[in-house]
Amino acid sequence: MFDMAIYNRMKILIAQKEFKEKRKLTYRVIAEETGLSIGTITSYLTQRAGRFDAPTLEKLCNYFDCQPGDLLTYSETPPKEK
C-alpha cells in the first residue's frame, strides 16, 4: 500500500447512499451509474488511488451528492478497517 496521508471515505458514502435509497450498490452498479471504470472504483475503495483527478472527483461528488471534502480526508495514519 502507498504511504499516503490523503484517504477517501467512499465506503461510508456508499453505505449512506444504500441506506437512503434502500438498495445495494455493487462496484459494477457504481461504475455504470458514474461512468467510471470498475478499476477506478476498486482503487478508491481499497485506498490505492495514486492520484485524485478533478473529473473523477466531480463524478463521485455528483453521484454521492457531496463536496470533495466529504469524500477525501487527511490523516497521518491510515483508516482502520472493521
Task: Please give the structural blueprint.
Blueprint: E1 6-8, H1 10-21, H2 27-34, H3 38-45, H4 54-64, H5 68-71, E2 72-74
Antiparallel strand pairs: 1-2
Q: How would you summarize what this structure contains?
A:
Helix content is about 50%, strand content about 5%. The chain has helices at about 10-20, 25-35, 40-45, 55-65, 70, and strands spanning about 5-10, 70-75. The chain is globular.
Please explain how this structure is put together.
Helix content is 52%, strand content 7%. It contains five helices and two strands. The chain has a two-stranded antiparallel ribbon. Helix 2 (27-34) crosses helix 3. It is globular and about 35 Å long. The mean pLDDT is 89.
Proportion of helical residues? 40-55%
Overall outline: globular
Strand order of the largest sheet: 1-2
Name the beta content range: 5-15%
Give the H and E element order: EHHHHHE
Summarize the biggest pleated sheet: 2 strands, antiparallel
How would you state the average pLDDT, rounded?
A: 89
State the distance separating the first and last CA atoms. 17 Å
Please give the number of β-strands. Answer: 2
